[in-house]
Amino acid sequence: MKFGYFLMWAAVRAVGATYLRWRVYHPERAPVHGPAILAANHASFLDPLLIGGALPRELHYLARESLFRNPILNVVLRHWNCVPVDRDGGGAAGLKGILDRLRRGGAIVLFPEGTRTRDGGLQPARAGVGLAVIKSDCPVVPVRVFGTWEAFGRRHRFPRPHPVRVKFGNALLFAELRAEAKTCAKPRLKAIYQQVADEIIAAIARLEPCGEVSGFP
User: Fold this and answer.
1) Inter-residue contact 166 to 51 (CB < 8 Å)
2) Best CA proximity match to 126, nearest among 138, 140, 139, 112
3) What is the pLDDT of residues 174-199, one digit of tens each?
4) What percent of the chain has pLDDT over 70?
5) Taking a C-beta distance cutoff of 8 angstroms, is the pair 129, 196 a contact?
């Protein structure tokens, strides 16, 4: 890890273990090396930090382009491997940034819902994550974060000391849909993007905070 990333990674783990009393389930399901997409539910600004702190490797994240205009935030976001995207989290520049990092062997965190939940529940998946998956050639690991809505959801101004859990699922490969997408007509291609997104959100929904808890890697 780069020194700047390591400092934030260590701080997240310390705060998570004490203030949030977090637990991590099956981090071994996420690749330690090589390209990967980590697709997670999105309930709080804490989600990307806790997912990153759970794994012993650098991750990459999406962040609104406007945030990079602040000089201090710009430095922090660059150290945290953030990819600037437009307000809706899409666009050609954002997709290129995602694919560039995957091609260089990086792992990136994506939120299929597109934005933070307004009620604590899962939202419908947007097709944009399906586009990124089809254009790449790497495993997709579903991740579900529990408790961050209660700890720091939209209605909170500051994080609360509520227990949180991060659980990693088994990787999804989408080999057949990727092969079909290379030759199919445009209407079918758009349907494939949405199908991939829906399958990812369904895999996230199936993850429950139960079973044996793995220690931190």
Assistant:
1) yes
2) 112
3) 999 999 999 999 999 999 999 999 99
4) 93
5) yes
Which residue type sits at 153? G
Please report which confidence band the pLDDT of residue 130 belongs to, taking 50, 70 and 90 as the band edges: very high
Helix axes 186-206, 127-135, angle to 10 degrees: 100
Q: Which helix (H) or strand (E) holds 83?
A: strand 82-85
Helix ranges (H only) for 69-126 are 71-79, 91-103
Question: Is residue 133 within 8 Å of residue 144, measured between CB atoms?
Answer: no
Contact 112, 126 (CB under 8 A): yes
Residues 6+ apart with CB under 8 A from 157: none
Write down the pLDDT at residue 215.
46
Q: Structural domains in the chain?
A: 3-153+165-206 (3.40.1130.10)
Q: Are strands 140-146 and 165-168 parallel, antiparallel or unpaired?
A: antiparallel
Integer Cα distance of 71 and 48 in angstroms: 21
Phi-psi region of 34 (alpha: psi -120 to 50; beta: other; left: phi over 0): left
Question: Which runs of consecutive H residues, i.e. helices, occur in 104-147?
Answer: 127-135
Q: Quick one: pLDDT at residue 210?
A: 59
pLDDT at 108 over 90: yes
